[in-house]
Amino acid sequence: MKKTASLFLALTLVLSLTLPVSAAEETSYPVLEGGVQEIQKYGNLVLDIDPAEVEKGGYTYGDLLCLTVDGTEYEMPLCTNYSDVDTGSLVLRDSEGVLIAAINMGDFATTSGLATKVAAEDGSYTWVFPEGKSLEDVSVTLSMKEPGGYYDQYLIHQLTRTDNRADYASDAVFANFRNVAVGDLGENALFRSSSPVNNELGRASYADALAKASNIQAVMNLADSDALIESYIAADGFNSPYYQSLFEAGKVKALNLGVDFTAADFKSGLAEGLRFLSEHEGPYLVHCNEGKDRAGFTSALLECLMGATYEEVVADYMTTYVNYYHLEAGSEQYEAVKNSNIVSILTTITGAKAGTDLSKVDLAAAAADYIRSAGLTQAELDTLRANLSKDYSLPTEETPAEPPEETPAEEPAAQTPPQNTYTVASGDCLWSIAQKLYGTGTRWPELYEANRTIIHDPNQIQIGQVLTVPAA
Fold it and tell me: Exposed (0-12), middle (13-18) or buried (19+): which is 249, by Cβ within 10 Å?
């Protein structure tokens, strides 16, 4: 399928979705018939339906189709790559002029019962069909299930990112680390990030340094078990000492949750983590592996509980996608992620019907109901709310004034450093300096980024260093 034609069809689809229902209903799509040319090594079916005929019939990428194979119907989206769907999901792939029905990381022929793969000792293989059947007997029909029914997910699967620190504006952006400061959340009470302990993405040490600078005191680890955390700590190259100290002090709750937010074990496990926060003082850190899905759900729930608006919750959730994928607000992919992810999350939390205007829902009441239904008592919920509303800012350290030294008359007076610099004094750290200069310690990464030529470790600054201070 030519890219230009495909782009035109995709734009046509987007425009068609704005038409009245009656106009959309008048659109008809031909039922295409054919067979199977070949079963590939991994069980993919190569169809003899010409992709040009699919395009001519008005089908385009992101449509949800019905593929009937030998009398059995399957729903699958029309896409360009196997990775356009989740692992284990069906996909109809337009691959350089060939139409292929497959399961991403799976075996469609075997799973469907169409044929059985028999391997020989020399590594060759054959596909054996049920008695009386052959490849030539397999019939296939293709029809429309829902135009654009997979389009948002298709766009989301086109997102790509790197794990190279140099491709990101700051350590905080790279580690997806930030203070969640919306609604009635206290100053520096709640933070979220990618994993500071699992270094699979190369971000752990950055998140760990940021956690230390933010004085994190209690952690909800949504991704790992205690055993997994211990294995990360024991691994060669482990470089998250602050997280290790929190874990060994019993300040990390390892929940090992899945990503099905509707599952009972997810909800009960989440309750354990929230109860842990109610029993410990902050500042708090919530993380999973990427800080994107499970951390996104949990952060949204806590933001709702603490009175954040719908717009604030959505903006915080989408910051992760801006950080990782450089999405621009209002772009097609941005809206696709928003509608597929955070809108779905808030619908789950509130129990609202699909399509409800969530900006008009009492999110705080809905979040409280959700948390109580997960297993927290009202007393635990009240304590959690009180903890999250506290101001956890580090106190500003006063440096005792020293009497001025007498300067000989013949010597010129010492010059005052310009206002855009700061000289590190005893007891200073980047957090406390940011607190003095900006009124919040959470802006310490700006100081670090502006002084990377003289600060090699943000946790180790030297008395007497003259720091460049970015404009407030």
Answer: exposed
d(CA 310, CA 185): 15
Q: Which of 122-143 are b and which e, b meaning 16 or more Cβ less than 10 Å from the residue's Cβ?
A: eeeeebebeeeeeeeebebebb
Q: What one-character DSSP code corresponds to residue 52?
A: H
Q: Taking the alpha carbons of 330, 331, 334, 340 in that order, is the dihedral positive or negative?
A: positive
Question: Mind listing the pLDDT tens digit for each residue in 11-42?
Answer: 343 334 343 444 344 579 999 999 999 999 88
Give the rounded distance of the alpha carbon of 286 from its chain centre. 13
Nearest partner of 283 among 370, 361, 391, 364, judged by Cα: 391
pLDDT for residue 398 is more than 80: no
Mean pLDDT lowest for which of 18-22, 200-204, 268-272, 421-425? 18-22
- CATH at residue 455: 3.10.350.10
Q: Per the confidence metrics, is the pTM higher than 0.85?
A: no
- Residue 342: give the domain boundaries: 165-388
Single out the residue of 142, 208, 194 nearest to residue 163, CA to CA: 194
Q: What is the CATH number of the domain that holds 325?
A: 3.90.190.10
